[in-house]
Amino acid sequence: MDLGIIGLGRMGSQIAQRLTRNGHRVVGYDRNPAAIQRLKTLGIEGADSLEQLVQSLPSPHILWLMVPAGKPVDETLEALQSMLEGGDIVIDGGNSYYKDTLRRAETLKKQGIVLVDVGTSGGIWGLEQGFSLMVGGPPEIVETLRPIFETLAPAPDKGWAHVGPVGAGHFVKMVHNGIEYGLMQAYAEGFAILKAKKEFELDLAQVAEVWRFGSVIRSWLLDLIAETLHENADLRGIAPYVQDSGEGRWTVKEAIDLDIPAPVITLSLLQRIRSRLHDPFTEKLLAALRHKFGGHPIVPEGEVE
Fold first, then answer.
1. Angle of CA points 169, 175, 176, to nearest 5°
2. Out of 45, 173, 247, 254, which one is annotated catalytic?
3. Are strands 114-121 and 132-136 parallel, antiparallel or unpaired?
4. pTM for the full model?
5. If DSSP codes are grouped into helix, strand and coil, which group holds residue 83?
6. Of 38, 169, 175, 292, which one's alpha carbon is 20 to 30 angstroms from that of 69?
């Protein structure tokens, strides 16, 4: 199957490689010429413009977008509109907000262009182990694209599914990432407790290895924790600054809109936000209030270890 991939970052490049290795013809494009050149060095076709990309593919055109969520997706689709025609298929494989996906699908539908949303998970391991794909879109279109999904997944019958109409793929991926926040936070808190018990002199990497096998909390995340602790037991050189890419926020907002309590996911998101505050006003005000009503001492700035 012939398709174009727009956005040749880490995952976009890996998707192109996995498809090419398995007999699909891929043409890649990125705004960064160096990314296109890297793809060409792997023996994969590259286009120097969106126009060249579309012209190099047979009709109906199949384009897979792997560009950052938000404005970049809208800008890319706007640039493509004059080049595409009825019957063409655009696959958004990035982490777009599902409500944006619904809006974009309606816009493209007016031109006879179908939008398929694919929540894509797999990180840096997807090339070798396969990607987890959550697909939303019309059943007949998804069936047409089946060879692509079967190639990218860990196995033709594992790790991917048509989960519902357009928007459903990105919705499921959104919740997937919210769960990921909670799981990561629970692991991090647990290992912090282990580390704080100084008298036992616990080897955290050893504990992680024990838990990896036979334990109910074994997981790929735990595998990565064990690997990390073997490499850097004290996590030297790593700042306690945790980014979030948006999916956790969207999950919390959706939970509120649906009146579904999600305290673990919500608190894990708040912890990430808290980690980025260098001089938190909240705790300073709490200290000042304790002093005002109870006479509790205030620790001056610069004296906290």
1. 85
2. 173
3. antiparallel
4. 0.94
5. coil
6. 38
Please report, as a single letter, which amino acid is at residue 18. Answer: R
- In eight-state DSSP terms, residue 284 is H
Q: pLDDT tens digit string along 200-242?
A: 999 999 999 999 999 999 999 999 999 999 999 999 999 999 9
CA atoms within a 13 Å half-sphere pointing along the CA-CB vector of 264: 13
Give the H or E element holding residue 270. helix 263-275
Which of 51, 150, 180, 209 is catalytic? The answer is: 180
Confirm whether 180 is a catalytic residue: yes
What is the rounded distance in angstroms from the CA atom of residue 133 to the CA atom of residue 184?
Answer: 21
- Please list the alpha-helical segments (H only) found in 154-239: 168-196, 204-211, 220-231
Task: Find the distance separating the first CA and the last CA of the chain, reported in whole Å.
Answer: 60
- Indicate the residue type of 138: P
Annotated active-site residue 51? The verdict is no
